Amino acid sequence: MTVLVVGGAGYIGSHAARVLRRHGFDVLLYDNLSTGHAALAKGFELVVGDVTETGKLADAMKRSQAVMHFAAHAYVGESVKDPRKYFRNNVEGGLALLNTALETGLRHVIFSSTCAVYGIPAQVPIGEDAPRQPVNPYGVSKLFFERALEAYDVAYGLRFASLRYFNAAGADETGETGECHDPETHLIPLALGAATEQGAPLQVFGGDYPTADGTCIRDYIHVTDLAEAHVKALEHLLGGGSSIALNLGTGRGHSVKEVITAVEAITGRPVRKQLGPRRAGDPPALVADPRRAEGVLGWKAKRSLAEIVSTAWQWLQRNHG
Question: For 86-95, 183-192, 216-225, which range has the lowest pLDDT when averaged over its residues?
Fold first, then answer.
């Protein structure tokens, strides 16, 4: 069967495409290339189009039996400065995708959601039953789409999986795809860049958090582990399983200082860094409780922080010298 991967020329979508193919699925990519890269779609059929181009999207959906939706803007800070951009793409574009799916008879949707739907959690690790109280427009836009999926499930029988990521990182072990955001805001590629001669020093935001070493703690999950969870969620729905919302993380947090230490160990180079004040709205710790995903899907993150950093470093060296 064919799976339509919307946003398939992006970071996580391109990894999902490769894991789908390894599991025997045919894959069709759909991306407007606003933040995706045609090079990451190499070896796959790519339809260049926006989710709001519903005629083009419908043609792609008619060739598919399920859709994975990764086509979202995803910078928290930018969403605060330009919420219109986020609601237009993530909400209006998302509804265009859902309505086109209904009209073409497609009834299985895997959604790239985020732990940002929880906002600042009262408890860590975070379970799926934690209140969804996002604190920025990005998180609000993702929560809106989750709510729309829930309503479409009840009204139209559209089955979905909302997969709430924690911190995606690393690169495909084959070296075919990896992280190339512009601007790059993720800690691990920034820390790796700061270990090179041409890279800028790493900005560390806050050293006075109530954590063991004073820096923020996050749950870093290898992007291939994430992609494998998407395939298992799809198989769950195709097998007649009910709609689900799941946290995808390792269940273990690492501080910024621990990540820097891992980067220095893998690269053999010091990470140049500058300590600055906290960023507004950054919680001290965000860590997933991934037990429900393991129970429902039989999925568990396998790759360690060292493997995340190592694959990201290999990707950086191959693509940026």
Answer: 183-192
